[in-house]
Amino acid sequence: MVNSHRDAFFKNPSVVIQQLYEKHGLDSIEDKLIDEFNNLVNLPTDIDSIPELESADFGTLVRWTAMVQDTGYGTEMYISTSSNDKCLVYGANQNEDVQFDNDQDDFSRIRERTNIYAVEIPGNNNESKPIKEDLLGGPSHKFPLQDRNNKLGVLLKLYDNDSGGSLRPATVYEFVGILGKSALPRTLDSIEEDNVQETIVPSLHVLYSQQVDNKPSSVVVEKDVGEHIITWLADEVLGGDKLAAHYLLLSLVSKTQSRKAGSPIGTLPITLSLPENENTSELKIVKAIEALTNLSVYLALSIDKLNERRLYPHSNGDDLNSGSLQVSPSTCLIFDERHLGQGTLKDTGVRNVHSIQNVIQSQKLEYNFPFSAFPFETDLITVILTDHSKSIIPGTIHINVKPTSDNYYGELSIPKHIKLWKEFILQSRQKQVTIPDEVSSIIQQSFVDERQAHKQNGGTGEGTSSDDLGRRITMARLLTSLDDGESNTMNNDHWNLITKLEKEREERC
């Protein structure tokens, strides 16, 4: 009996909502529907039993994992019952005729809900799902990545306005709700224009939402996984350069662990300067990062592109335009400057470079509005590619790549155990590394010794700076996170290897 009632709720929730309305009336019907839903579905355990939105029919219960793009639509008033007494809460009975008379009884039918726009997760490297034709589309300015086909955007309708206010832009959530169609809220400018047609988009009347973090789905217990990844990156991706392979893997496992005086602690943005090459094939490193991460976005930078489209979210007042930097946490941003070209950065280009710089140095992205700008914290991985020239974007660790072969272009063969490696990287990003007192003392003493040696050798300036020390400690933490299993304690070997890597990198500069 429970299963048949549950199946009915999945396939035609309007019937269940109407039954609740006929039994209890409008009073607290939203709460009663949530109770009914929770009695039938145990979340998050039963989440996989709910059909996915991408292949579902309108009017059914669906689930969808998506990134919130625009929380600025605010609340809307809607009519909760139709002219023939059908309940319209949570998108039920959407084809019913709605009439409103300006009397006291009809005002009691008015209720409030929150509108939020969400899009498919930008840069998702997992296997894509086929999407029904009637779900595709939506305003192009709402999607962060303009060069992608088959875009899916949905207008979320939340009946608990408090939960609507807690959803953050550029954050991924799992939603469960009833799939429908709605008109996208119109801007003030479009309302004043008589000939502007409504934009009809898929809508989701949300019953459940839960933030989703990019975490491993299983525990990796295999030995020496980190070393295997470094060897593969060096031999198959970076032309034999093991130093560059170390830095790339350390960058991929980095994350914002904390903040000190507003600055992120734990990130490792890098610039890989490759030898100039006339080869027009794709760099293997781009495909390698896609294979090793769940989320990555490749952005080929040129003066013209920087001047043309804003990479940061911006609004003209009522509607938030997305930008390529509006991506979810743990996304790897790959900026390719190898074909930057000649020219002058105009206002949009300067603002774009400033936004990229803020993401790299402060892990913050400003959302621009007509009279203000609001910074939102990010947690993004950054890899910049250049052709043996300095990046136009400061704040990264610069590595001159020294390949011993030219096999870093062309097709990349993906190892069969790439899923294990991807899980290992996610696992490493979650580790909380500890530094024993004896290792901390070794670090401090090596810092003092290096500065003294620099002075004794007649060097100018202070030699190893406090910034250098901080970077090495961050790198040693990241190296420790690559240890097997749950091991998370830094030792002297970690510190010595990082010191060696840094000295070799500096010798190349």
From TrEMBL:
Organism this protein belongs to: Wallemia mellicola
GO molecular function term, any single one: chromatin binding
Keyword Amino-acid biosynthesis: no
Name used for this protein in its record: Uncharacterized protein
Nucleus recorded as keyword: yes
GO biological process: DNA-templated DNA replication
Annotated segments matching region Disordered: 451-470
Taxonomic superkingdom: Eukaryota
